[in-house]
Design brief:
Number of strands of chain A: 19
CATH architecture of the largest domain in chain A: 3-Layer(aba) Sandwich
Largest interface: A-B, 81 and 81 residues
Strand order of the largest sheet of chain A: 3-4-2-1-5-6-7
CATH topology of the largest domain in chain A: Rossmann fold
Helix content of chain A: 40-55%
Radius of gyration of chain A: 25 Å
Largest sheet of chain A: 7 strands, mixed
Strand content of chain A: 15-25%
Number of domains of chain A: 3
Mean pLDDT of chain A: 93
Shape of chain A: elongated
CATH class of the largest domain in chain A: Alpha Beta
Oligomer: homodimer
Structural class of chain A: alpha/beta
Chain lengths: 463, 463
């Protein structure tokens, strides 16, 4: 199969044209103002036969009127004009086109014909098209976006995201800072009349800013192509996927959403497994695991330990981990000795290691991190909100309660350290502030277990 | 089987004794100060042979020295003294005893013998014991608690909680306000040497302040007794359960946590199903469903509709709902007509009803609420954070974007209305403020679907 690399102009263009720019409020109307605002004013070319000037910028009748070479065209005019406009893009040798408009195969047969028409105009050209029915690109590192997103709220990171849906790409971008996630790039691919998830898997496989690839899919465009691209990319970077459209209602909704054929879920399961792709069971799990993979080392064996102050949370993590294949072996004799010497009579020194209110969380955690039998740690610190509030307000350094995250990291840099907690607002905020950037916090005990398992699975897959 | 109702003294005692009260910092040392602080100073009797006075309160050598009748004794002295102290409670005819100390069957054989010894002292008496290895009671309505919990942060509500673990009960109480949940009462039962989950199911079945019963279990003490109590209670109020200890590691951790025999998971599945108990797959799901059941009407048929601005979230809800048995039928012709008249060309008027950025969320939602075919609604409003922030800051009333929650409620008071959204912090806060108390917000599209399904299942079970 021939693979054509994507032009870098999609992600960091020099000269951008917006076709369908308009003064009227409506889809895409904010894009030109937004681009001018992020530093593209001098490199922005608006096109619309019915406008003369917008925000002080000349509006051209058609693409061919623009005197400059354009390397990225953003199309937001009505769907029916797409074939002609894409034809103009080809004629002007524009390498990268983002067709954001909706009204194509997701609406039915006529829309599908329109897509086919656009595809015809592309044949034999160098022009690549992302879309239709998408919001294009979010590139926080180079501060380039192609839709109205709060760029300043985004933290540049190492997670490359491929999403099908435009609206979803938008809310993913909004949600990322809330979830303490940093994207390298996010690309929404919509109905994929040309560029698809397989192109992007290969792109991210070599993107220096990307360490983890996250996919939200409602269907794969070409199973064989996807399998090969996934295998190729997965040999370089872990791929996490959430696949929508497993039910018949979901499939039919996916078809009318992004024109996707969601296909049989079992088929996808097989493709994902063979390619070593890690599948998330929910959107929250996808994001939690992305956070884990973006920061934690891989896990070198299936042997994990749970250090907890809550027996119940420990049981939850153990149940979830065991169901997947994670092992919770007995701790090494040295570790057991070390902890037992300090432990009160009621405390069982085992794995899960439930320290309860003994105050031994730090010593237990350090002992476990030093234990050669253990390759990854799930830490479940909890404390009554009233108690921790009182302690901290009396001037005690909160890291004396549950440890210094940097020290944990130094002690075992090769072992993943995933944390989960529940409790009151004061405690939750405090944990986030102290541990949220150095270790990795996830949103449930079950996801903590699945994350470790996935870090091990990927390690084993890469061999 | 004989069922002995629990004395009300557990929940709202007049005279409280604390055995093992101490000036030394340690387990339970804050309890007497806490009780004095919540209005029990005049009705509080401390017992400890090695103390004379604590915080200006007389400390008695033994229970029998207290001149007053005691209706609740809280025991926090070392485990080894439990048989004698419980014997004194019996002698003094104290109806309610909470044994909070740990160090019993959860630590092994000797601890189990100690529990047996306590049980012997109880025989033939009217005294009931909760515990050991627990934190007892949280009763926000009557402002009574038996451990250090931030009482002022708790909102009194209609959810009755039965938890096994003490630490867990504590963090549940802390987490409840963060999760926008109100408890009627929370009881932690620990190792259950006397009072168990079955007693409490029957108690909550008749507790006027309780509308929903939530159980966190690591194992049932007596399967037959539990089944009968669950069937009895479930005929009056819905019961939601999360069961820990499905794996062998989890089972063994549960044994050393609360001395529970977690048993075969399939067995529990059968008991829960036959008794009509609703099982949550995770702790978050348990709490989300508790919120739903505490506010929403039951669902009268399996036919639901999804109204969404994000095709992707709509697909997730449809997948999860379909897998359970929820139906997403075609909308009634009137509904379709109403929406289609307003809809732009690209919008598909179907179920899930994806309104995208059409601005038709309110009209669509109202039309669906009026549709006789539909018995429950999943609403998935999303909007780019930057856009909503701009709109609201320009002075627009945010309910003009996604509707007035009171109006939705008035329009179809008999139909559950469950909402989920993702996005930026500004948007998430706004949705919580506007809709969080009138409708019910849950933490994922999947849980929204499971919640509706459970509301329908319970309706069908009750017949």
């Amino acid at each position: 199969m021939i693979h054509r690399p994507l032009p870098e102009a999609f992600f960091k263009p020099r000269h951008v044209a917006v076709v369908g720019a308009s003064k009227k409020r409506g889809f895409g109307s904010g894009i030109s103002t937004m681009l001018a605002g992020i530093g593209y004013r001098e490199h922005l070319y608006l096109v619309n036969p019915r406008e003369k000037e917008i925000d002080g910028l000349t509006v051209y009748r058609q693409l061919s009127d623009i005197p400059e070479d354009i390397d990225l065209a953003i199309l937001i005019m009505p769907a029916s004009q797409a074939p002609d406009v894409v034809g103009e893009c080809v004629a002007k040798r524009i390498p990268a086109v983002i067709l954001e408009s909706a009204g194509f195969s997701e609406t039915g047969h006529e829309g599908a014909l329109l897509e086919e028409e656009v595809r015809k105009r592309l044949r034999g050209s160098e022009t690549r098209v992302i879309g239709p029915n998408c919001i294009g690109i979010v590139n926080p590192h180079d501060r380039f976006i192609t839709s109205q997103i709060d760029l300043d709220s985004l933290r540049p990171g190492n997670i490359g995201v491929i999403a099908q849906s435009g609206a979803f790409g938008n809310i993913l971008s909004d949600w990322a800072p809330v979830q303490n996630l940093g994207f390298s790039k996010l690309v929404t691919i919509g109905n994929r009349l040309d560029v698809d998830e397989s192109d992007l898997l290969r792109y991210f496989a070599h993107d220096e800013k990307t360490d983890v690839i996250v996919l939200y899919l409602e269907g794969v465009k070409d199973g064989r192509r996807f399998f090969e691209a996934a295998r190729y990319a997965n040999a370089r970077k872990p791929i996490l996927v959430f696949k929508g459209g497993s039910s018949s209602v979901g499939k039919s909704a996916a078809a009318s959403h992004t024109g996707s054929l969601a296909g049989e879920d079992g088929l996808y399961e097989g493709i994902f497994r063979q390619a070593g792709v890690i599948r998330a069971a929910s959107f929250q799990e996808l994001f939690d695991m992305a956070r884990v993979f973006s920061r934690e080392p891989l896990m070198r064996g299936p042997e994990a330990c749970i250090v907890t102050c809550s027996g119940s949370l420990g049981v939850m993590a153990a149940d979830a981990g065991s169901a997947l294949g994670l092992q919770f072996p007995e701790l090494g004799p040295e570790t057991v000795d070390k902890v037992r010497k300090l432990a009160p009579a009621w405390m069982n020194v085992r794995n899960p290691l439930d320290v309860g209110p003994s105050g031994l969380f730090i010593q237990a955690t350090k002992a476990v991190l030093r234990d050669d039998r253990i390759h990854g740690l799930i830490a479940l610190p909890v404390i009554p909100n009233a108690v921790v509030q009182e302690i901290v307000e009396s001037g005690v350094d909160p890291t004396t309660l549950y440890g210094d995250p940097e020290e944990y990291r130094r002690l075992a840099p090769g072992k993943p350290f995933v944390m989960h907690t529940v409790g009151g607002a004061f405690w939750l905020d405090m944990v986030q502030k102290i541990y949220g950037d150095t270790l990795t916090i996830v949103s449930s005990a079950e996801i903590a277990a699945k994350s470790l398992w996935s870090l091990y699975r990927y390690h084993a897959f890469r061999g």
